[in-house]
Amino acid sequence: MNALAVRCRAYQTIARAIRFIKQHGPCQPSLQEVAAHVGMSHFHLQRLFSVWAGISPKRFLQYLTTEHARSLLRGDYDVLSAAHAAGLSGPGRLHDLMIACDAATPGEVRSLGEGLLITYGFGPTPFGRVIAGTTARGLCHLQFVSWRDNTDPANAGHSADSAADDDAIRRLHGDWQHARLVRDDAALATSIERAFSLVGREQPLHLLLHGTNFQLKVWQALLDIAPGEVVSYGELATRIDHPRAQRAVGSALARNRIAVLIPCHRVLRENGDIGSYRWGGDRKQALLAVEAARRLGQSDG
User: Fold this and answer.
1) Residues 201, 222, 290, 257: is their CA dihedral positive or negative?
2) Which residues contact 104 (CB under 8 A, 6 or more apart)?
3) Using CA atoms, how far apart are residues 236 and 241, in angstroms rounded to an integer?
4) pLDDT in tens, the chain (301 residues)
5) CA separation (Å) from 110 to 106, 118, 137?
6) Minimal CB count within 10 Å: which of 37, 58, 61, 218?
7) In sequence order, what DSSP letters do the residues of the chain get, joined into one string?
8) Rounded Cα distance, 22 and 277, in Å
9) How distant is the alpha carbon of residue 205 from its chain centre?
10) Is residue 264 annotated as part of the catalytic site, yes or no?
11) How far is 126 from 2, CA to CA, in rounded Å?
């Protein structure tokens, strides 16, 4: 098993630890308590966190607190660097990439992708398994695969992985109902690796976005939020010149089909609470914690 697959599997343990910490936040659980909950020694958990996140559990847990989120929101994020404003990468990015976006044509939207060939595939990432889809014009789909409990009677006769894969394919097909879908995991491996890479590339990663004009405006604005930074729903609405459209902004975030690259995980409630995330609050906290740690350049705690 390669290093990426190991980190993908490790995320399941990380997510369980995050849920435990959230449930017992006021008590500030110790490393030993968290380790006992996930069924391993605190020495093993220490090593797992260090390999997965690049920081110690103590430092990682600090980044999960609401107070840390509030401190980010209190920061001055009104003026962004020229590089970030241009959609380019900056120091400490989770993925050090240039991103070029192209909107689906009105005809493609109306026809639900008729005549469009989408090659899709599954692959591991440090934050869990994903499904990705690409066209000749760019990546059109990148979503985390939701794990399903194979003890659920509805999943009888299927493994948890196959049931989750079936759900993921149905969601892709729902977005592009008349497109031709061809599975090729190997063909998507490079795109998935680039989406979560720490190494920049000379060529930008192209995205094909499918949404309304308002949604496209929100998604474009998200590209100006640097890793390690966050904004509130209200501030994001102001940035796109619709200060009273917070609810509509939230709806646009919920319709985002490109996880991580279109970073809707960097939007929090006004009080610093994590808020909703279509791929799970645990994953949102993990993404934010890792980005915050890398932005500050801290490798242990």
Assistant:
1) negative
2) 140, 208, 209, 210, 211
3) 9
4) 666 777 888 898 989 988 888 888 667 788 899 999 999 999 999 888 888 887 787 788 777 776 667 776 766 443 333 333 333 333 334 444 567 888 887 777 777 778 889 999 999 999 999 999 999 989 999 999 975 433 344 444 445 578 889 999 999 999 898 999 999 999 999 999 888 875 555 567 899 998 889 999 999 999 888 888 889 999 999 999 999 999 999 999 999 999 999 999 999 988 888 888 999 999 999 999 888 877 766 444 4
5) 6, 17, 18
6) 58
7) --HHHHHHHHHHHHHHHHHHHHHTGGG---HHHHHHHHTS-HHHHHHHHHHHHSS-HHHHHHHTSHHHHHHHHHS--SS--HHHHTT---TT-SS---EEEEEPPHHHHHHTTTT-EEEEEEE--TTS-EEEEEETTEEEEEEEPPP--TTSGGGTTS-HHHHHHHHHHHHHHHHSTTSEEEE-HHHHHHHHHHHT-SS--SSPEEEEE-S-HHHHHHHHHHTTS-TT--EEHHHHHHHTT-TT-HHHHHHHHHT--BTTTS-GGGEE-TTS-----TT-HHHHHHHHHHHHHHHHT----
8) 15
9) 16
10) yes
11) 12
Count Cβ atoms below 10 Å from residue 150 Cβ, excluding itself: 15
**Domains of the chain and CATH, by start:** 82-264 (1.10.10.10)
Give the C-alpha separation, 112 to 123, whole Å: 25
Q: How many residues does the chain have?
A: 301
- Pair of tokens at residue 108: 């493609």
- CA–CA separation, 272 vs 269, rounded Å? 5
